[in-house]
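[job 0412] stage=complex_fold ligand=protoporphyrin IX containing FE status=START
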Amino acid sequence: MRSSSISLLKLLIFLLALLPLDRLIWLGLNDGLGANPIEMITRSTGTWALVFLCLTLAMTPLRLLTSSSFWIKLRRMLGLFSFFYASLHFLIWFGLDQNYDVMAMIKDVIKRPFITMGMLTFLLMLPLAITSNHWMQGLLGRRWSQLHHLIYILACTAILHYWWHKAGKNDLQTVSLYALIVGLLLCCRMPYIKNKFLLK
Ligand code: HEM
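[job 0412] stage=complex_fold status=DONE, emitting structure tokens
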């Protein structure tokens, strides 16, 4: 694919990735966030953080299946969108749920295991977002890929966060589907699966 086509496609994906945020702003301005706007925004941003995380994890299997490095060119942007929605998710909870009170935040992180898992996931995302640029990649060399293996751990803690939240409500259908998707995407990294099913 020509580099101008890739840039155009990246721009299109960038604009598409902003649609969930546009939708929330539009609903907010038009009284459309429902009876519990904080819950609605927290849920929406959390869900999109997870969706972009799954998309990020899907890029390597797609590269192996198609023998095209094109997918890897999208990976950083998708990962950063996951972090972007996770940051909004965190800020809404910290600002609107905890009133920017750091002590209340720490208490909630300690008290509720699903919040502990969410915070752990967010903290694991931070070094990946900070080192996502080419400069840091060059600076860290081989250690960069080792550091970025953290995505496998944070994908599991994100699922645990979602699972724990829904287990209390006896509503595990959607989270089970996400767990299956993340599980399959992680299995694609296993040498046996990679060699047998993905590499041509
Ligand atoms: C500081 C870190 C985090 C905190 C404090 C936090 C907090 C919360 C809270 C309070 C909810 C419940 C919303 C409600 O039903 O009222 C929630 C749900 C959720 N969070 Fe997080 N979260 C954090 C990080 C993350 C991250 C990093 C992800 C994804 C990568 C994530 C994904 C989700 C998902 C998918 C839901 C469920 C949405 C639904 O009910 O449909 N969260 N989180």
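The chain has a mean pLDDT of 96.
[job 0412] exit 0
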